[in-house]
Amino acid sequence: MPAVLIDGKKISEELRAELSLEVARLKVMGFIPGLAAVLVGDNPASELYVKMKAAACEKIGIYSDVIRRDKTSSHREILELVKTLNKKDDIDGILVQSPLPDIIDEPAITMAIDPMKDVDGFHPVNQGLLLAGHPAFEPATPLGIVELLSRSGNSPNGKHVVILGRGFLVGKPLSAMLATKTSNTNATVTLCHTGTKDIASHTRRADIIIAAMGKAKFLTADMIKPGAVVIDVGTNEIIDPSHPKGRRIVGDVDFEAVRQVAGAITPVPGGVGPMTIAALLKNTVKACKLRHNIE
Fold first, then answer.
1. What does the alpha-carbon distance between residue 231 and residue 229 come to, in Å, rounded to a whole number?
2. For the segment 28-45, what is each residue's pLDDT rounded down to a tens digit?
3. Is 120 considered catalytic here?
4. In angstroms, rounded to a whole number, what is the distance separating the alpha carbons of residues 60 and 85?
5. S-S: 208 plus which of 145, 146, 161, 250, CB 3.0-4.6 Å?
6. Which helix (H) or strand (E) holds 236?
7. pLDDT digits (tens, 9 = 90+) for 204-227
């Protein structure tokens, strides 16, 4: 039997519905969660992502402020903008859409964000709290993956999880999150990367595989054990003459082949992507509650 599809869109809607109720509760108390998104330049993908995030905010009642700056903006200009947002009382969360133009020092911009408004979870303070087991804000994609696994009935608790990719955005923080002792994590984690010898020997022992290497169709059917849960984080554009646009998006998993062996699998698109945005909303609501000391 083909693997069960883990519907990220459906599960993200469940999470958004819960957050909508929480936002309504906060409004009764006189607080409206606010998210500022800074978009520098005219990258089409970044423009789309920010537009989707803003629409998601507005749908559940979060105040959204999209701030656009020209690609010729200087590092100092963006730095001053972030400092201004840090002081704004109607803004609980700040995200600066990546990638930034080369003339801007992106790590320095991340460092300038108030850690209590860092809803992306990238500030070193929040990274350190995560590693210490006392996270304030967890990065959106890893948080979305944890929610996706738990809400789909595939809790990592007590399982062997293999993560493919040690990137700053997904692999590294996710490995720390999944190893933390909570009811929804508490897994044994193996983190594989380009220096790992015989990756298949690790993935074949995994109960759950999370592919985040950025390599199209890297994970093949012979690399997993029957019944394993497969989470595909990849978004890779490949040439496909049969597609109307001549190109299409695929994940890091050879979906059709792996689906015949796995027990459950996420599609691309429609898997992790919607959960990332939902997790960002969750962090924004959390930021509002933390700033105002609300349980």
1. 7
2. 999 999 999 999 999 998
3. yes
4. 22
5. 161
6. strand 236-239
7. 999 999 999 999 999 999 999 999
Question: What would the two tokens of residue 115 be?
Answer: 């850690």
Phi (first) and psi of residue 64, to 5 degrees: -125, 130
How distant is the alpha carbon of residue 136 from its chain centre? 15
Q: Which residue has the tokens 């692999």?
A: 171
Torsion sign over Cα 201, 202, 205, 211: negative
Q: Given a cut of 90, is residue 242 above it in pLDDT?
A: no
Q: What is the pLDDT of residues 97-131, one digit of tens each?
A: 999 999 999 999 999 999 999 999 999 999 999 99
Written as six digits, the tokens of 63 are 């105040």
Tokens of 210: 């999370």
Amino acid at 257: A
The predicted-structure confidence for 150-180, as pLDDT tens digits, reads as follows 999 999 999 999 999 999 999 999 999 999 9
| Total residue count of the chain as it appears in this document | 295
- The rounded distance, in Å, linking the Cα atoms of 99 and 89 is 27
- pLDDT score at 183: 92
A 10 A CB-CB count for 234 gives 24
pLDDT of residue 240: 83
Q: Which H or E run includes 260?
A: none
Tokens 């979906």 map to which residue? 255
**Radius of gyration from C-alpha coordinates of the chain:** 19
pLDDT(243) > 90:
no
Contact 265, 253 (CB under 8 A): yes
Predicted local confidence at residue 245, as pLDDT: 84
Please say if 27 is a catalytic residue. no
- Which one of the listed residues 92, 114, 120, 207 is annotated catalytic? 120
The angle that helices 140-151 and 8-28 make with each other, rounded to 10 degrees, is: 110
Catalytic-labelled residue, pool 92, 97, 172, 282: 97
